[in-house]
Design goal:
Elements (H helix, E strand, L loop, with lengths): L2 H11 L4 E7 L5 H13 L4 E5 L10 H11 L5 H12 L7 E5 L1 H7 L1 H11 L3 E4 L8 H9 L3 E2 L1 E3 L5 H10 L4 E4 L12 H12 L6 E4 L5 H8 L4 E4 L1 H9 L5 H20 L1
Parallel strand pairs: 1-2, 1-9, 2-3, 3-4, 4-5, 6-7, 7-8, 8-9
Helix pairs in contact: 2-4, 2-12, 3-11, 4-6, 5-6, 6-7, 10-12, 11-12
């Protein structure tokens, strides 16, 4: 069974919410990422989303865009990021890892080669931000062939017909984007989140994780009352950027403290 499914089933059985944490691979420098991933797990993160640096990250706000730029300055790529996951697996064989990024690097590799490489590295799922369901079927087939989940995004503006189309292809969990706009934007409208999640649940039994706008334990707790988990990214990337000139140890400790606060909020 895929590690994402195993983790989600275990969390449901124990009445706990999933904590999904996003980092940009190689941000603020490659030496930080591996130890930051391990620290996140120590502080209660259930699933790691590893952002693949890209030159035109259209779905991201300024904070994560800058994270991509910092990583690209060190020539971090899809290939080196998969090698990092393989290194992570030397010590951690249980925590699910999702590659989150854009279609261009995957298409350059070719879907079959990418799927084989990701599986070999120990990746569990893929979230391709700019690949709509109409164009995702070939990649979906290759991911299914090697047992990887394809994670899809749903937004406040997604119509019922399109929700049905997307969840019919999705696996692992569904990532609900709680805000209109880019990562790190705006304030959560919890009534809107509750209403939309109710609409989505009528069409799928997959777990629903909520992202965008979650910055601390309180906001994580608020969305988790309606969803099955929280996806948190900008607050980690912002802290890494602000501490980029500090030691690796200082950066990793600060990231861990944020994660501990959010885990506490989810569990209370």
């Amino acid at each position: 069974m895929n590690r994402i499914t195993e983790r989600m089933n275990a969390l449901k059985a124990s009445s706990r919410k999933a904590f999904v944490a996003y980092l940009v691979s190689g941000d603020p420098r490659p030496s930080v990422t591996l130890e930051a991933m391990h620290e996140l797990v120590r502080q209660g993160v259930d699933i790691i989303e590893l952002g693949i640096p890209f030159s035109d990250p259209m779905a991201e706000g300024e904070v994560i865009q800058l994270g991509h730029e910092r990583a690209l300055s060190h020539n971090v790529s899809l290939t080196s990021s998969m090698a990092l996951v393989k290194q992570f697996r030397e010590q951690n064989t249980q925590t699910p890892v999702i590659l989150m990024g854009y279609a261009n690097p995957i298409e350059r590799k070719g879907y079959e080669t990418f799927a084989d490489s990701a599986s070999d590295a120990g990746v569990d799922g893929v979230l391709t931000v700019d690949l709509p369901p109409e164009e995702a079927r070939d990649l979906n087939e290759e991911l299914q062939r090697v047992g990887l989940h394809n994670i899809f995004l749903l937004a406040p503006t997604t119509t019922p017909a399109r929700i049905h189309e997307i969840v019919s292809m999705a696996s692992g969990f569904v990532y609900y984007v709680s805000l209109k706009g880019v990562t790190g934007a705006g304030h959560l409208d919890l009534n809107s989140v509750k209403q939309k999640l109710g609409e989505i649940r009528k069409m799928t039994d997959l777990p629903l994780c909520v992202g965008f706008g979650i910055k601390d334990g309180a906001s994580a707790k608020a969305v988790s009352e309606h969803g099955d988990g929280a996806v948190v990214g900008s607050v980690f990337v912002d802290k890494m950027g602000k501490l980029a000139d500090k030691s690796d140890e200082e950066i990793i400790k600060a990231v861990g403290e944020i994660a501990a606060n959010i885990r506490s909020g989810l569990d209370n």
